[in-house]
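Duplicate of #3305? Posting structure anyway:
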């Protein structure tokens, strides 16, 4: 018997299907944000539309279950974005921090009618950006200059958090309108994993840790080069060589943070740059490059199945949500294809009529998701 299937057997209830649909709707909202223009120096900054679903999940199922939902949503969305330890860390740090903050505020103030969804939305946005900014500092740019962004990100949090808070009531009406019987079809299946996959995953995590322990440029360059070359030879393709280039805004941000905000010896041909800054930028770019390359090994190492097994042990009372996550993992490619199809966004203008467009988009996505699971 598949070890992952045994974790979730007999868990197909109407609430399981509902949670799976909600998860897929949240993944669709994450995918929708990829079509919004990104600011070059704030590549991770997004409206956070899926936080509307997070808030509803907290209210209906509790904070602990919402944390599991956040982990599952970040994990599933990561497969579309270009899975890596770095993107997962950024997504989880912001998502879990925001979920815990909104859960606490809802329990203390919201449930007593002392704070509305707008206030909770702003709280979630503030903590989401704070969590991500801390992760950016420790993993991407170990430079205090990154915290100069706090005023801008606080303003963005108030704006986006207010929008999310306003969206919660209509989003809840859409999600809660779905009628589900206990006879809906929903298959889910994950392959098992062997001890060698655990050893391989542990070794890969140790490798990523070494990238941050070593500070010597030659060592980091050798490790990154060896990893990139090994993956290319193993996959018999040059595509792994190009994979990190998809994240060029992140590399540009690293270069600017280290080059423009570092003290040291000024270069004669460019007085606004320092040799120390350029060296630090090059070191961190290579380190992040290696992290992105390492993410390409995760599917082969069955890290997905290992992750779900770990979640099963941590969230022992949340089998229903875990089963919903596995269902969502099976159907999310269909949801992504639907979101990428222009027909899903036909006649919608998210900048001129944001509330109407998001409401209509959610309705279309939910109908599509529910029909897909039924088939």
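Output from current build:
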């Amino acid at each position: 018997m598949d070890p992952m299937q045994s974790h979730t057997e007999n868990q197909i209830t109407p609430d399981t299907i509902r949670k799976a649909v909600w998860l897929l709707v949240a993944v669709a909202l994450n995918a929708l944000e990829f079509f919004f223009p990104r600011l070059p120096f704030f590549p991770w900054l997004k409206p956070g539309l899926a936080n509307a679903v997070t808030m509803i999940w907290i209210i209906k199922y509790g904070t602990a279950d919402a944390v599991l939902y956040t982990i599952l949503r970040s994990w599933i969305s990561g497969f579309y974005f270009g899975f890596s330890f770095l993107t997962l860390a950024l997504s989880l740090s912001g998502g879990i921090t925001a979920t815990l903050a909104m859960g606490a505020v809802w329990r203390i103030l919201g449930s007593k009618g002392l704070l509305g969804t707008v206030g909770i939305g702003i709280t979630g946005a503030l903590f989401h950006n704070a969590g991500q900014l801390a992760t950016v500092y420790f993993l991407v740019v170990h430079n205090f200059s990154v915290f100069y962004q706090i005023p801008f990100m606080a303003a963005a949090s108030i704006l986006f958090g207010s929008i999310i808070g306003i969206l919660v009531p209509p989003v809840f009406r859409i999600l809660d309108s779905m009628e589900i019987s206990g006879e809906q079809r929903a298959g889910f299946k994950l392959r098992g994993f062997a001890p060698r996959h655990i050893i391989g995953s542990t070794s890969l995590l140790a490798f990523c840790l070494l990238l941050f322990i070593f500070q010597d440029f030659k060592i980091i360059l050798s490790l990154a080069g060896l990893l990139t070359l090994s993956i290319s030879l193993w996959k018999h393709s040059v595509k792994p060589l190009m994979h990190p280039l998809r994240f060029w805004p992140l590399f540009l941000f690293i270069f600017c943070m280290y080059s423009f905000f570092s003290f040291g010896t000024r270069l004669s041909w460019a007085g606004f740059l320092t040799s120390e800054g350029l060296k630090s930028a090059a070191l961190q770019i290579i380190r992040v490059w290696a992290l992105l390359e390492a993410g390409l090994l995760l599917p082969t190492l069955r890290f997905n199945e290992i992750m779900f097994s770990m979640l099963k042990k941590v969230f022992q009372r949340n089998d229903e949500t875990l089963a919903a996550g596995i269902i969502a993992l099976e159907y999310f490619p269909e949801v992504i294809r639907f979101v990428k199809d222009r027909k899903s966004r036909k006649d919608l203008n998210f900048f001129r009529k944001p509330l109407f467009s998001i409401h209509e988009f959610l309705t279309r996505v939910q109908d599509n998701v529910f029909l897909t699971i039924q088939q």
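Confirmed duplicate; merging threads. Residues 195-297 form one domain. Confidence is low (pLDDT under 50) at residues 1-10.
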